[in-house]
Amino acid sequence: MLGVARLKSDVAIASANASLDIVSRRLQAADPKVEAGRSIEALLAHDDLVGDSRQPLLLLRACVAAVLLIACVNVSNLLLAGAVDRQSEIAVRSALGPRGAR
């Protein structure tokens, strides 16, 4: 069975584990048959979820950022290439046609 709780900011994990140990002993004393083999422990959620995966997750984040950067550079290059292609068209239109927003 899993329980989730939030500690107050001034409570350390060690003191929470000490309090939970007392509760666990009382539960085992009250009903040893049901509580046999069970224990209660406080863990940091981040450490429990991420664990030893920190380095691979950081590497994955860096790879995603690199792919996003490459995609942004490609889009900007496409926009610049389109502007260069239209440069002569814009020059002719501005030489022949009306000025401004028309």
Describe the protein's architecture and organization.
This protein is mostly helical and 102 residues long. It folds into two domains: 1-43, no CATH class; 51-102. The protein contains four helices and no strands. The longest helix has 43 residues, at 54-96. It starts with 12 loop residues before the first helix and ends in a 6-residue tail after the last helix. The mean pLDDT is 85.
Sequence-ordered SSE layout with sheet pairings:
Layout: H1 13-30, H2 32-35, H3 45-50, H4 54-96
In terms of DSSP E residues, the strand content is: under 5%
- Overall strand count: 0
Q: Kindly state the mean pLDDT as a whole number?
A: 85
Structural class determined from secondary elements? mainly alpha
What is the count of distinct domains?
Answer: 2
Largest sheet: none
N-to-C span:
72 Å
Helix coverage percent of residues? 55-70%
Rg, nearest Å:
32 Å
Task: Give me the strand/helix succession.
Answer: HHHH
Shape: rod-shaped
Number of helices: 4
List the uncertain runs: none
Short note summarizing the structure:
The protein is mainly alpha-helical. The protein has 4 helices and no strands. The chain folds into 2 domains: 1-43, no CATH class; 51-102.
List keywords for this structure.
2 domains
